[in-house]
């Protein structure tokens, strides 16, 4: 493994994952800082974040470009706090959404004390990796007279998915990566098997500066509950829906309502109205490109009599009669009305399955038992419309 960075911090020994149970060997000053996690789509960023943090904060999926938002996970150890910044894959933007995602990546990188550059063990180094490297170099390295690059912040190559390689193949891969750039360190891991993740933590701790704890010990994410739930829903939808549609889906958590103390669940009386399934045959026609066909006007339609979908399972109905539950209202935005039946599924089968998968994790995020309402709405061509991108949460930095 190379260590070519002049001002690189030496990794500190004695840290291991596991939060409060982690032990420190020797006496080291406390460290804290931001580590940006970058890599091409599908390299395993989200899975690694989850393995590092030991909990589900970023969504994972077998489809590329799942991650749309910068998600921060906070790893608190006895002598260090690492704030991990997950980034949407750096890629060539095709839509305005893509451009904004790239802007988010810029913002994440600007804050970073060090970079974890993920490279998949099971794939050749490709144009996507080279594009990321040149972007990192343009922001974080200087070219010396002899043509070599020196990093201004530590850049650690994290070789992911090593469980897919034999030992011999891994050695060859590590040598290729060593040739690829003068990384501060190279750490092979399997997030799936939790192999060498502790070593990665130890190395990353060494890349952040001395400093006090930035967040309370119990905090693992900077994300709001709404945002965590929206990411979770997107992840579940990606698993559920099998074609390209999910990438034209946006998820917005409209509200999380907590029950008033000692009041019965007043939603129980609405259940029949909500239970009616309309299967998206409604009038969100392709008609206009006018300003009116945006999120708000479609929202109005879907919250009226022809509301697309609030599928009630018997369990939901039973749950509604039990007081002291929270209620989460979620809107799924598609780009065209013809996409609604795909999301909803025959006899609402997709929504029913999605809700079933969501129940437990949403309860955990909300902190109590929760009823979930899902509405499917149309936000015409939202990926290319600046106004709608703003409304759906993809703001300019
Ligand atoms: N075998 C193996 N598969 C992994 C490992 N880590 C991730 N994967 C798989 O790789 C795929 C992509 O993982 P993600 O964590 O969603 O990747 P990502 O880089 O966050 O993806 P984007 O959000 O699209 O950028 C999923 O199918 C994971 O199960 C690993 O350590 N070993």
Automatic annotation (TrEMBL):
Domain Era-type G: 31-210
Gene Ontology terms: cellular component: cytosol; plasma membrane
Main location: cytoplasm
Residue stretches of biased makeup (Polar residues): 304-324
UniProt entry keywords in alphabetical sequence: Cell membrane, Cytoplasm, GTP-binding, Membrane, Nucleotide-binding, Ribosome biogenesis, RNA-binding, rRNA-binding
PROSITE patterns documented for this protein: G_ERA (PS51713)
Positions of GTP binding: 39-46, 86-90, 160-163
Listed transmembrane segments: none
CDD domains: Era
Region (Disordered): 1-26, 255-327
Family to which this protein belongs: Belongs to the TRAFAC class TrmE-Era-EngA-EngB-Septin-like GTPase superfamily. Era GTPase family.
Protein name: GTPase Era
Organism: Pseudoscardovia suis
């Amino acid at each position: 493994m190379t260590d070519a960075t002049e001002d690189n911090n030496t990794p500190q020994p004695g840290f291991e994952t596991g939060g409060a149970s982690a032990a420190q060997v020797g006496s080291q000053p406390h460290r804290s800082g931001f580590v940006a996690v970058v890599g091409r789509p599908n390299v395993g960023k989200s899975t690694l974040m989850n393995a590092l943090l030991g909990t589900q904060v970023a969504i994972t999926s077998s489809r590329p470009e799942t991650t749309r938002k910068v998600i921060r996970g906070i790893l608190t150890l006895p002598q260090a706090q690492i704030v991990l910044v997950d980034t949407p894959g750096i890629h060539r933007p095709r839509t305005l959404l893509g451009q904004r995602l790239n802007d988010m990546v810029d913002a994440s990188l600007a804050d970073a004390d060090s970079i974890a550059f993920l490279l998949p063990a099971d794939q050749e180094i490709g144009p996507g990796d080279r594009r990321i490297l040149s972007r990192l170099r343009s922001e974080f390295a200087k070219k010396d007279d002899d043509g070599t690059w020196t990093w201004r912040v530590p850049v650690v190559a994290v070789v992911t998915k090593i469980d897919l390689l034999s030992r011999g193949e891994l050695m060859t891969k590590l040598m290729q990566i060593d040739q690829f750039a003068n990384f501060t360190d190279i750490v092979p891991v399997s997030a799936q098997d939790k192999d060498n993740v502790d070593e990665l933590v130890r190395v990353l701790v060494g890349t952040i500066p001395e400093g006090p704890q930035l967040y309370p010990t119990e905090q693992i994410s900077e994300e709001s509950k709404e945002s965590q739930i929206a990411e979770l829903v997107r992840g579940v939808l990606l698993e559920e829906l099998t074609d390209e549609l999910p990438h034209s889906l946006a998820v917005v958590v409209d509200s999380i309502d907590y029950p008033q103390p000692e009041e019965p669940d007043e939603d129980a009386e609405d259940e029949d109205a909500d239970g009616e399934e309309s299967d998206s045959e409604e009038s969100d026609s392709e008609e206009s490109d006018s300003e009116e066909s945006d999120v708000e006007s479609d929202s109005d339609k879907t919250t009226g009599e022809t509301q697309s979908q609030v599928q009630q399972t018997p369990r939901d109905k039973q749950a509604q009669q039990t007081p002291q539950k929270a209620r989460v209202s979620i809107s799924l935005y598609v780009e065209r009305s013809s996409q609604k039946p795909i999301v909803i599924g025959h006899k609402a089968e997709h929504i029913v399955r999605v809700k079933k998968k969501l129940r437990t994790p949403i309860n955990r995020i909300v902190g109590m038992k929760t009823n979930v309402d899902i509405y499917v709405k149309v936000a015409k061509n939202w990926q290319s419309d600046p106004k709608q991108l703003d409304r759906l949460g993809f703001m300019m930095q």
